[in-house]
Amino acid sequence: MLSSAGLRWAGVGAVVAALLFAPSAALADDVRGGQRAVIKTLELTQAWRVSKGAGITIAVLDSGVDPGHRDLAGSVRVGKDFTAGANPAGVAPRRLHGTYMASLIAGHGHGDKGRFGIIGVAPEADVLSVRVILEDEEPGFREFNSAERFEHVVAKGIRYAVDEGADVINMSISKELATREERAAIRYAISKGVVLVAAAGNDGERDLDGDFAPYSYPAAFPGVVSVGATDRRLRRATFSNWNSSVLVAAPGVDIMGAGPGDEYWVGRGTSQATALVSGVAALIKAKYPDISPPLLAQALTAGATDRPPGGYDTATGFGIVNAPRALAEAGRLAGHTETATGTQVQDPAMPVAGGQAGRIKVIVRDENRVTVYTAIAGAATFGALASLSVIFLLVRRVRRAHSSQDA
């Protein structure tokens, strides 16, 4: 059983979107059958007629991906390990969580025409494995959570993935606190057109004082697609965080996936839901490579199904991601842009802070409105002066009357 993996953040141990694994003894053809519910919910068969993610690279910031798994072989590039030195020398990473997530995103199956094993949402996409966490059973887990040199591994991993050409970054990880470095890295990624998808977290069953579950990072950063998990009835899974950062949801209970060494696993968590949404983002980027991250996020929300009453709630966001509907919405939005340009645009390498923007330059001056507002202000001033004059005269009359009576 894998309970969680951790990250050090300002001295506080934080938890990856937790998993509950049970090994599957099923044969490979039974594995594909175990994915039917997800394939049906996301309507992947219909979406694959439009896109399968070809040409897209999804960076999986996680515990590492097994490039030799038969359902991922040939699709994985092993990138930098930002946890190097945490485990004792000679100890190989387990790569369980990362392999599992990668298979849900870009597994291509195996055997005759790939009919067996795990099929990911974007089976023709490539995976860049970036190791930024340790599984909690690895011997270096405590060192990784306490040593200062590992404090900013996620921020470093995001920048590395962007510079290595990632189109989508999957972060099935969750931390309790935000840092300046990670916020800046996210802004950098978005400025380069990279889509970021992260897990909303699994604290939904905790005893809470407020009316919502805690915010988790990087999911709660502006610009990141924050994903909640649903159960078999397509309602919020009891463990899934609910708060206003949740943008969309996806299945997150009893999800079949691949593990290292050609194994298969069944698990639950917002991790799995996040990986599925990253796969849908890859389908969109493959079809519309120039679509900006904000517009892609809008396509995900506009195309969602099972929308809550009123259109949004903190449990499942705008609803459950639907691949063909999101692709259709992306086609409608792809010709537009939401990218700001010019000399006064905020430096993407810097977090938002007061005083950086400087003085505001007036671009358009509406003379008619200026005249009207000036006239209104003048009339108001005149009225105020007239009122003061009347009050002054009344006061003088009252004083004179009192003087006459005294005389």
Q: How much of the sequence is in beta strands?
A: 15-25%
Global outline: elongated
Largest sheet: 7 strands, parallel
What is the succession of H and E elements?
EEEHHHEEHEEEEHHEHEEEEEHHHH
Uncertain segments are: 1-25, 353-360
Mean pLDDT: 85
Instruction: Give a count of the beta strands, DSSP E runs of length 2 or more.
Output: 15
- Oligomeric form of this entry? single chain
Record the strand order, biggest sheet: 5-8-4-10-11-12-13
Briefly note the structural class of the backbone. Answer: alpha/beta
Radius of gyration, Cα only, in angstroms? 28 Å
Helix run count: 11
Helical proportion?
25-40%
How far the N terminus sits from the C terminus, by CA atoms, comes to 103 Å
Please write out the topology.
Elements: E1 5-9, E2 12-15, E3 22-23, H1 28-33, H2 36-42, H3 44-47, E4 57-62, E5 76-81, H4 96-106, E6 108-110, E7 116-119, E8 126-131, E9 134-135, H5 141-146, H6 153-163, E10 168-171, H7 180-191, E11 195-199, E12 225-230, E13 248-251, E14 255-259, E15 263-267, H8 270-287, H9 293-302, H10 323-333, H11 367-406
Parallel strand pairs: 4-8, 4-10, 5-8, 10-11, 11-12, 12-13
Antiparallel strand pairs: 1-2, 1-9, 3-15, 6-7, 14-15
Helix pairs in contact: 4-8, 6-7, 8-10, 9-10
Note down, in words, how this protein is organized.
By secondary structure, the chain is α/β, with parallel strands linked by helices. The strands form four sheets. The chain has a seven-stranded parallel beta sheet with strand order 5-8-4-10-11-12-13, sandwiched between helices. Strands 2-1-9 form a three-stranded antiparallel beta sheet. Strands 3-15-14 form a three-stranded antiparallel beta sheet, covered by helices on one side. Strand 10, helix 7 and strand 11 form a beta-alpha-beta unit. The radius of gyration is 28 Å and the shape is elongated. It starts with a strand and ends with a helix.
